[in-house]
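Inputs:
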Amino acid sequence: GIQVEQSPPDLILQEGANSTLRCNFSDSVNNLQWFHQNPWGQLINLFYIPSGTKQNGRLSATTVATERYSLLYISSSQTTDSGVYFCAVAAYSGAGSYQLTFGKGTKLSVIP
Amino acid sequence: DTAVSQTPKYLVTQMGNDKSIKCEQNLGHDTMYWYKQDSKKFLKIMFSYNNKELIINETVPNRFSPKSPDKAHLNLHINSLELGDSAVYFCASSQGDQGRAFFGQGTRLTVV
């Protein structure tokens, strides 16, 4: 099956700093999504981004499907950005449907 | 007005018991899922339902069975619970199997 690798696995930032999270995937995908799991465990869909660049406030994401990677940018980080960021890709499962496969996540800690 | 809601949020039970987790979505989506998140935060798909038909059934024990009474609901029944079933279970929905996925708040199952 498709492999999804995220880096770095852990990241500690001072409040106000910027960061870039990376997601590499091993095969062609139909779409890519970024999620944030907050410290209370809730999974929030940040971006649905099969290709190109999207921005939402201090967050932006870029997917280069031909080179099989996506980047999530966090600018002017805040303590509320802490949590785990997951990349997930939808690829054909071979069972007549597409399946969302998750990476192992990047754990971000923003300290005041 | 929660888009995807699951109950209960916490479930503590003894080995050998049978339990159910309920999930409802009010997004009008036609595809619903169950994911399992293990102690290392890895998310893996267990089942997906599209228009009340099971379209993905990963290699999970047959003690786990999804039941969908209608398009807005996908419940998870677990028989003869084992210690290794302890995890957080997430329900999710999307429009089609390639659509943007939205997750419930998770159910933390602890088997003692």
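The first strand of chain B starts at residue 4 and ends at 7. Flag for discussion at group meeting.
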